[in-house]
Amino acid sequence: MRYAVKEIYYTLQGEGANAGRAAVFLRFAGCNLWTGRQEDRSLGPSCSAWCDTDFLGTDGPGGGRFETAAQLAAAVKSLWPAGAQSKRFVVCTGGEPLLQLDDALIAELHAARFEIAVETNGTLAAPSSIVWLTVSPKANCDLMLTMGDELKLIFPQPGAEPQRFEGLDFHHFFLQPMDGPDGVRNTRLTLEYCLAFPQWRLSLQTHKILQIR
Q1: Residues forming a β-bridge with 176
Q2: What pLDDT, on a 0 to 100 scale, did the predictor assign at position 128?
């Protein structure tokens, strides 16, 4: 399989249960919910109106087209600090990573001694060999993945209210304030909801607060 990658970079995970953990981010190009083009924001499901991730093309740092799983795994490994003793950690994200993440790439990343985390919209099946699965449901989209490590819901999101998901089989339930012009209001609403319904934990985008990637 040939892989289209927007960018690969080394940073700290900014969100969810692994916040603060060093990770290589492998951002795949493309998504199954919308094109990523500004002119198409009104054509996709609700997430196309507020999605702030650039997954279009292969022009980001470390991005490109990789002919084999071994080549892509080698590119990921090259960004991990030489001599580091901690377990290697890669976050496969997008766009929608499950459009491209296959058994061959998973095997190569495991051979390079990486724990593999995936951040997905949950509308596609996931390989069972993923170590950490984060599902971020989107309104008006059929959710195929109903179990995993963490469910991370952007809030508030009409059509994707928290009570729709609270009975699913996840270890962690996170609410993350929707960014944008109403970010302050959304953060207050998220805080209030987490206090009222303590099954949910607050997830902040600490990478934006710290002004890192």
Answers
A1: 154
A2: 86
**Separation of CA 23 from chain center:** 13
C-alpha 18/C-alpha 108 separation (Å) is 23
Average pLDDT over residues 115-125: 97
Query: In 3D, which of 28, 2, 23 has the Cα closest to residue 121?
Result: 28
Rounded Cα distance between 137 and 61, Å, is 28
Which run of H or of E encompasses 69? helix 69-77
Asked whether 53 and 34 are in contact (CB, 8 A), the reply is no
Plot region of 42 (φ>0 → left; ψ -120 to 50 → alpha; else → beta): alpha
- pLDDT by residue (tens digit) across 55-106? 999 999 999 999 999 999 999 999 999 988 889 999 999 999 999 999 999 9
Place of tokens 């995936």: 118
Considering only CA atoms, which of 137, 84, 138, 94 is closest in space to residue 117? 94
pTM of the model: 0.96
Cβ(190)–Cβ(175) below 8 Å = yes
Sign (positive or negative) of CA dihedral 8, 9, 10, 12: negative
44 or 176: which leads in pLDDT: 176
DSSP 111: H
Furthest C-alpha separation in the chain? 50
Please check whether residue 99 is in contact with residue 119, taking contact to mean a CB–CB distance below 8 angstroms. Answer: no
**How large is the average pLDDT for residues 104-127?**
97
Confidence of residue 44 (pLDDT cuts 50, 70, 90): confident
